[in-house]
Design brief:
Helix 3 packs across helix 18 and helix 11 crosses helix 20. By secondary structure, this protein is mostly helical. It is 83% helix and 0% strand.
């Protein structure tokens, strides 16, 4: 049951993401966050009081509904309230939170019983719910998309101020909203300006096959089998978590100076190279079997892999139009978690049947092929407003129809 207990969470994240898209488009970004906090609390209570594997699976499934949905909901909200100059920085914030969560979970798991851990995480869910209720304001773009122009305008000015750039963006958003008043929802979904970004985020979802997130699920087991007991698995696992956190913080630091597409493509190729180096090491572990070398290679793989995953998530909420951003981001996130589920579920079997080197080699091959395609289809979004990105797809549609 071990692989099912581990993999059922990313499986349920698929359903959570799709449901979250409808949820936040219907009730709003603020209310959606609070609903997910309540679901998270329920899941931890079920796991904490579980008496058999069935209850454990139910609790883990419900936890996935909340965790998966929270990622896309937070990205949509942050993308909508942030100035374009800072959006590339703030969209990495959820990845920093994920790193802190994984690091905390792994550390507590070494010293605290899993039931007591559930109580701790349940208390965090309660505190999140309280803080969200007190401090979170509704997204101005959602308010405007629902026809609440006065409330949306007031919220927009609260978040962005009343500078020249923010005023231009607001006027463009209001203009586009007036143009959307008579459009039908199904026509928006069938439009190329929705289908194109959906295909792009489908390709982005395959970054989960670089194995960095799989490492979080099976960290100790992968370290023990790959490096034959030459490293303390628990200490190395926590160390890797620290490295991922530091790398994610560095992404925030460098994201302002490096165009995000170039950053992403370069990191993805570096991840593939480090995976192939790891394969060579594992095939010749008796010859190269030094602890220092194994640590260096693994740190490189996790660093580049974690960077790629964090950057991939940051593109998701920027590519869809305002009226379909919740739905589009939900579908995109569900794709990503579906790929993660498959990867988490099959990786132990692949490693057991064909060896760890074959598992890492498959990660590397998928990463290279996917990255080559993304070089041509992934748009650069740094420094552009969400409305400008949306309009670029419409301009492309017009050009195609004219030709």
């Amino acid at each position: 049951m071990a692989s099912w207990i581990a993999s059922i969470t990313p499986l349920s994240m698929v359903f959570g993401c799709v449901g979250a898209g409808y949820l936040i488009d219907y009730v709003g970004r603020r209310s959606g966050h609070m609903v997910l906090a309540v679901i998270s609390l329920i899941s931890w209570l079920i796991v904490a009081f579980a008496t058999n594997n069935m209850y454990m699976l139910i609790g883990r499934f419900i936890a996935g509904l909340s965790a998966g949905a929270s990622r896309c909901v937070s990205l949509v909200y942050i993308g909508e309230i942030t100035d374009p100059k800072y959006r590339s920085l703030t969209l990495v914030a959820p990845s920093i939170s994920m790193c802190v969560g994984a690091m905390t979970s792994h550390f507590l798991g070494g010293y605290v019983s899993w039931r007591h851990c559930c109580y701790i995480y349940g208390a965090l869910s309660v505190s999140c719910l309280i803080l969200l209720f007190i401090f979170l304001k509704e997204s101005p773009l959602w308010l405007i998309s629902k026809g609440k122009i006065d409330d949306g305008t007031q919220a927009f000015k609260w978040f962005r101020g009343q500078g020249i750039d923010s005023e231009k963006e607001l006027q463009l958003v209001l203009l586009r909203q007036n143009e959307k008043c008579n459009q039908y929802f199904y026509k928006d979904i069938m439009n190329l300006s929705f289908i194109k970004p959906l295909l792009v985020v489908f390709l982005l979802s395959f970054v989960q096959f670089n194995g960095a997130n799989v490492f979080s699920f099976y960290a100790q087991e992968m370290i023990e089998t790959s490096f034959k007991g030459s490293i303390d698995p628990f200490a190395f696992m926590v160390g890797i978590d620290v490295v991922r956190f530091v790398i994610t913080v560095l992404i925030v630091a460098f994201n302002k100076f490096i165009p995000r597409k170039i950053f992403f493509i370069t990191a993805n190729f570096c991840c593939a190279i480090s995976l192939f180096i790891l394969v060579v090491y594992l095939l010749n572990i008796e010859r190269f079997g030094s602890v220092g070398l194994s640590i260096t290679i693994t740190v490189l793989f996790i660093s580049f892999g974690g960077t790629v995953v964090a950057l991939a998530w940051s593109f998701v909420p920027e590519l869809f139009s305002a009226n379909l951003r919740g739905l589009g981001s939900g579908i995109a996130s569900s794709m990503s978690y579906l790929v993660l589920f498959v990867c988490v579920k099959i990786s132990p079997g692949v490693a057991a049947t064909y060896g760890d080197a074959a598992m890492y080699a498959s990660y590397g091959v998928v990463t290279v092929i996917n990255n080559l395609i993304l070089c041509f289809v992934l748009p650069e979004t740094s420094g552009r407003t969400l409305q400008e990105i949306e309009d670029s797809y419409k301009t492309s549609d017009t050009t195609v129809s004219t030709l």
